[in-house]
Write a structure and sequence with these properties.
The complex is a heterodimer of chains A (about 300) and B (about 300).
Chain A: H1 2-12, E1 20-21, E2 37-42, E3 47-51, E4 57-58, H2 63-75, H3 112-121, H4 127-142, E5 148-149, H5 151-160, H6 162-173, H7 181-192, E6 194-196, H8 198-209, H9 224-237, H10 243-249, E7 254-256, E8 261-266, E9 270-275, E10 278-279, H11 286-299
Antiparallel strand pairs in A: 1-10, 2-3, 2-9, 4-6, 5-6, 7-8, 8-9
Helix pairs in contact in A: 1-11, 2-3, 2-9, 3-6, 3-7, 4-7, 5-7, 6-7
Chain B: H1 2-12, E1 20-21, E2 37-42, E3 47-51, E4 57-58, H2 64-75, H3 112-120, H4 127-142, H5 151-160, H6 162-173, H7 181-192, E5 195-196, H8 198-209, H9 224-237, H10 243-249, E6 254-256, E7 261-266, E8 270-275, E9 278-279, H11 286-299
Antiparallel strand pairs in B: 1-9, 2-3, 2-8, 4-5, 6-7, 7-8
Chain lengths: ~300, ~300
């Protein structure tokens, strides 16, 4: 497997030239577009890796899955009173249709409007406790005790987050967000700025692939039902407005972030974490997608085959 | 299995009281809302069924993934130059966003705009030849050489199909439809008016579940790659704008039609066909979804668990 991964890294290296590193958060643009890495972890906790797997980067939208799981554990499926379950057909940060006209709620928990709402629902007495609970769940999911926030990225997000502020106040006006907007956004920017590496991502994927049970400790971290919900959302909405294309071309539950990371949960088989900071127009890692295409084909992982 | 299906039919019967039979095509309004049926065909061609499986009904939107397969076999993946792969977030007959803002092509082959384009791409020297190719292909996929068009429903669709005409001319104006609009629409209405039973639908599903190979003759009917594409699009867009919810709660590739039928393809396991004419607001069979939910939870068929 390590050999296959090494070959995949070599065969996909050149795709980095086709895209651009995200610049709308200035701190993200400092990433080297030519790095790439991949880690897979199977259900027996065998770990395989190749490429630049020691590099840390921020979790960004990949955190949306973690906060959804936490909100589900806090409220059960009442979460869906406030956020829908349907793909929107729009880009993740679109201001055009923040809510579904029929239901008057954000389309799904993966677009910014939905994920900010989800963050607002996480139970806590104050914003410090809220982010601490998110970080703790990430520690459980990754099996990594050293999870921290990158304060430079966080400050960069704080400075440039006006679009998300606009979204949040719109949601507050509609009573979809019930708590203090500034606190929610602070938590949201912080959760997006949590630093992880490809191993952490593969571990999150492996836990979800293993029905919510850690492959390291064999302890249940997430109820089975919620692990299924997370995988379904990753499949239908996880790759921004390219989710349909990804479902056809790759066909595994996956969630991407603008830092260039993607994590995947292949049910009962493996978790995968990839990194490649160069993004396509939709905001997905170009090299990351190419690596996943090759690996899925090589190992016959598509859920429809 | 027959016993289980009988039990499920009995337990879900009460849901036939909820919702309404489709009326926008007058002929469909005549269906008896109290019927319900289910058929399953596994990979060894074992057939299981319960309820009203001898009732014939028109295939409607369930024809869309089948017509897509024929268009793919005729044109290869150039089909996707004219129709996308993304869920739209809108209802199937919406006139609001007939094309995506970026690409100017319909969102996917499961909304009416996309399906009409797909039908226009099926090859033939005349509209008659094109339709014969469609009908023959449907006969192969259902393993039923007696399939025919319900002319009453076809005439009813012809009379009331102005919304689809509007869509057709919009697509023609934008050069997405290159063939004659009237011919394309006529074949589209005809393809929707093909009569099937639950068992026909179960075979459609079984052929797709079996990687495109007939479970009766073991002969390949569609290339593996196209079978995967059809299953992926059924999964992300098959249940109208409730596809995301259905992915979460049921989690198998399925396609519904306004006649109240649904067919599902569970990779390497089985095809399922259900009927229940009473529809929810999105246009999906209420009792059909209940029957599928029960089978999936009983037999653990969700692709994510």
């Amino acid at each position: 497997m390590n050999k296959i991964l090494k070959k995949i890294i070599n065969d996909t290296k050149t795709f980095a030239n086709q895209g651009k590193v995200a610049t709308y958060i200035p701190e993200l643009s400092k990433m080297n577009k030519n790095i790439s890495g991949i880690v897979t972890i199977d259900m027996n906790n065998n770990i395989y890796s190749a490429g630049d797997t020691d590099i840390k980067f921020t979790i960004q939208s990949m955190s949306n899955i973690v906060t959804l799981l936490l909100a589900l554990m806090d409220h059960g499926e009442k979460v869906f009173d406030k956020v829908g379950k349907e793909p929107s057909g729009d880009p993740f940060n679109s201001l055009k249709r923040l809510t579904n006209k029929n239901t008057d709620k954000p389309y799904n928990p993966m677009i910014n409007a939905g994920s900010i709402t989800i963050t607002s629902m996480i139970k806590a007495d104050n914003k410090e406790e809220r982010i601490a609970r998110i970080i703790n769940l990430i520690k459980d999911l990754t099996g990594n005790d050293n999870i921290e926030i990158n304060m430079d990225v966080y400050n960069s997000e704080l400075k440039t987050g006006d679009k998300n502020r606009s979204i949040a106040y719109f949601l507050k006006d509609k009573n979809i967000i019930e708590c203090e907007v500034c606190d929610v956004l602070d938590t949201y920017f912080k959760q997006c700025s949590i630093e992880i590496d490809c191993f952490d991502l593969a571990n999150i994927g492996a836990t979800l692939a293993n029905d919510g049970i850690s492959t390291i400790t064999n302890k249940r971290i997430i109820p089975s039902k919620y692990a299924t919900i997370a995988k379904a959302f990753m499949f239908t909405c996880g790759m921004y407005d390219d989710s349909g294309e990804f479902a056809v071309e790759v066909g595994i539950p996956a969630k991407s972030g603008v830092s260039g990371g993607i994590f995947c949960a292949v049910p009962n088989k493996m978790g995968i974490g990839v990194l490649g900071p160069s993004l396509d127009e939709k905001g997905n890692s170009i090299v990351g997608i190419e690596m996943l295409k090759l690996l899925t084909k090589e190992k016959n992982l598509c859920i429809f085959n | 299995m027959n016993l289980l299906l009988k039990k499920i039919i009995a337990e879900t019967k009460k849901y036939t009281k909820e919702g309404n039979v489709a009326t926008y095509i007058p002929e469909l309004g005549r269906m008896d809302r109290n019927i319900s049926g289910v058929s399953i065909v596994d990979m060894n061609n074992n057939i299981y069924s319960a309820g009203d499986t001898d009732v014939k009904f028109t295939i409607q939107s369930m024809s869309k993934p089948i017509a897509l397969l024929l268009a793919l076999m005729d044109n290869g993946e150039k089909v996707f130059d004219k129709v996308g792969k993304e869920p739209s977030g809108d209802s199937f007959n919406s006139l609001k966003r007939l094309a995506t803002h970026n690409t100017e092509i319909p969102f996917n082959p499961m909304v009416n705009a996309g399906a009409i384009v797909v039908t226009s791409m099926i090859k033939g020297n005349s509209k008659e030849e094109k339709f014969n190719r469609i009908l023959n292909f449907f006969k192969k996929m259902t393993e039923n050489s007696d399939l025919s068009v319900n002319m009453d429903v076809f005439n009813s669709e012809l009379k009331t199909g102005d919304k689809n005409r509007s869509i057709g001319y919009f697509l023609k104006e934008n050069n997405i439809i290159e063939e004659d609009v009237n011919d394309s629409l006529e074949n589209y209405f005809k393809q929707c008016s093909i009569e099937v039973t639950c068992t026909d639908l179960a075979y459609l599903g079984a052929t797709l579940a079996n990687d495109g190979v007939s479970v009766i003759t073991n002969e390949r009917i569609v290339p593996s790659r196209y079978a995967t594409i059809a299953k992926a699009l059924m999964f992300t867009c098959g249940m109208y704008d409730d596809s995301g919810k259905f992915a979460l709660e049921v989690g198998i590739p399925s396609k519904s039609g306004v006649s109240g039928g649904v067919f599902s393809a569970i990779p390497n396991k089985m095809g399922i066909g259900v009927i229940g004419p009473s529809l929810d607001k999105k246009g999906n069979s209420i009792v059909g979804i209940k029957i599928l939910s029960e089978i999936v939870s009983e037999k653990k068929l969700s692709l994510f668990s």
